[in-house]
Design goal:
This protein has about 140 residues and is mainly alpha-helical. The protein has a single domain, classed as Cytochrome c-like domain (Cytochrome Bc1 Complex, Chain D, domain 2, Orthogonal Bundle), CATH 1.10.760.10. About 5% of the residues have low confidence. The chain is globular and about 35 Å long. The protein contains seven helices and two strands, in the order αααααββαα. The chain has a two-stranded antiparallel sheet with strand order 1-2.
Length: about 140
């Protein structure tokens, strides 16, 4: 009888934990899906299919502390390109990322995709309007 009570208690805890997890909104899911397409077309050659980049040349996006701590700079870099030193996950990179000519919507979508892939988890939707507010005038 005690085993049955313990199993029931554990089952309830598991179910309640799963139900309290955040679910991505339909808008975020759609943006992530579109962002994956952008990634496949523009980013995959340098940052690789698994988001791990190429050590010493192209920084990882997977489990990226830079992306987590520098979202605005990341958005600006995706839109306008980047150059100069950055440190990602404790390693220094100093290369050039050329601008890809992405629209603000494509930047938002690929940011949402990257921010929710390969161990990154940011359930907040980035929109084209927010991208336009972040970009330097």
């Amino acid at each position: 009888m005690k085993k049955l009570g313990l199993i029931l208690t554990i089952s309830i805890l598991i179910i309640s934990c799963k139900s309290s997890e955040k679910k991505a909104s339909p808008e975020l899911k759609s943006s992530i899906s579109e962002g994956e397409k952008v990634y496949q077309n523009f980013c995959i050659n340098c940052h690789m299919p698994n988001g791990e980049g190429i050590e010493g040349a192209y920084p990882p996006l997977a489990n990226s502390d830079y992306l987590e701590n520098n979202l605005k700079a990341s958005i600006i870099g995706i839109k306008n390109g980047m150059k100069g030193e950055i440190t990602v996950n404790g390693k220094t990179y100093n290369n050039i990322m050329t601008p890809m000519g992405l629209s603000n919507q494509e930047v938002a979508d690929v940011t949402n995709y990257i921010s929710n892939s390969w161990g990154n988890k940011k359930d907040t939707l980035i929109t084209a309007k927010e991208v336009s507010k972040i970009l330097p005038k």
